[in-house]
What we know:
By secondary structure, the chain is α/β, with parallel strands linked by helices. It is built from eight helices and seven strands, in the order E-H-E-H-E-H-E-H-E-H-H-H-E-E-H. A seven-stranded mixed β-sheet has the order 3-2-1-4-5-7-6, with helices on both faces. Helix 3 runs parallel beside helix 4 and helix 4 packs across helix 7. The longest helix is centred in the last third of the chain and has 18 residues.
Amino acid sequence: MRILEALSATGLRAIRYAHEIPRVKKIVANDLLPEAVESIRRNAEYNHVEELVEPNTDDANVLMYRNKALNQKYHVIDLDPYGTVTPFIDSSLQAIEEDGLMLVTCTDLSVLAGNGYPEKCFALYGGVNMVSHEATHESALRLVLHQLGQSAAKYKKTVEPLLSLSIDFYVRVFVRIRTSPIEVKNL
């Protein structure tokens, strides 16, 4: 199993994956900042997982598109940016294995669940939230899942939600990605 933590920062999640997931072959802990990647290297060494965790300095989109071009796809891609995930969806859908797992976090709940930025919500997620409603956070999750499904459909892929969470200031969804043109028609 190959895992990509595309926006790793200190590598904490990659280290947890190395300790907690059996049969992992490689975990690429990527970040754009060289200082962050040095921190990942030190943390992996300190936690004795340097044989599994590979620190990498690159733009997350460039890395995923390059791996797609080299046919080196990932079984799991974890996207946890500061803010919206939308800039990383397209490249991750192309860099994931069939039946792969995408873990997607959006920390822009003020856009997804608030009423102050309806135009921004529509531009990023293709819809607007039901403001002043008790299901605001559920609506935010549905907007994220909708965006993932719309983006996947361009590549004849479907998104199967496995787990959806809304916690404090963020939402996180776990989805399985499959190629199925017939299922895309049911989107």
